[in-house]
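Hey L., structure's done. Input below.
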Amino acid sequence: MAPIPDSEECWQAVCARDAGCDGRFVFSVSSTGVYCRPSCPARRPARRNVRFHADPAAAEAAGFRPCKRCTPNGASPAQRLDALVAAACALLENAERPMSMGELAARIGLSSSHLSRAFKERTGLTPRAWAEARRQQRLAALLPHSRSVLEAALDAGYSGTRALYTAASALSPAQRRRRGAGECLRYAIAACALGQVLLAASPQGVCALLFGDSEAALEAQLGQRFAAAERQRDDAGLGDWLAQVLTQLEQPERAAHLPLDLRGSAFQLRVWQALTQIPSGQTRGYGELAEQLHSHPRAIARACASNPVGLLVPCHRVVSASGAAGGYHWGVARKLALLRSEDDTRERVS
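Output:
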């Protein structure tokens, strides 16, 4: 078992109702005789009445009973909502026809408004938008192997093909069925301080900026992200853009300004746009961005993890509430190196 943090750190976590410290310790209140998890939403107790314990068993051995509001000896309210939202996703995934919010809420056992809020906080989408996104994913998986677009649409849950053509897309359904015939991505690779960097572009702009340890690994990454497209190496044609990227890596104050071709859900695009507004040398917490975008930290973290354009969409500037680096698709060491470089530059300039 990890050691309990010092009492001052514990008290700060209680004052902040820091859910990240749940499971690390519990605190008891002598005036009420109960013990709670750090994130308990109840009124903050007086410091003189608070003691800290390594776990629920230690608190109960000291004579305290579990809080009925935050259930420190079981699943937290947030964890229970996580499970209910997961169950809602499973229902939507397996439904033979679209489900209304009222139907879904009744099956889950929550009010429509409560379910809608919890669902959007955790997935970044409404249940209806989530179900549509999954249907589009099924369609994308079926198109290359179906005899016709209509067959794929029906198998994916559409009533026909009309809806497939109502939204603008880089590729038509027919092109996607032919595994992206008609789209060609150019890419270039160069050595950099972080190992190797690959820049890929469509006619609309940069669609991927990836880091890796070898050219082969980077080409494999690109192939996984854009399996349906033709990919052509063009170091000469993309040399100017790649040079701007390398300059930014070495001198963060000289930011590259390149056109971007970002491809994601509406929520992902909102998150990625917000990331581009974080100045170099500064960071934001997942919780801060979640509050700004009226979402949930987990949804923000997932959108950051799926960002295909490193550096130019600076997901490395998003850190955990404790100030720790948090995760990074291309490795925490690269994230820390980027943050140190930007921080050093800010100090020199100031």
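The radius of gyration is 24 Å. The chain has a mean pLDDT of 84.

-- N.
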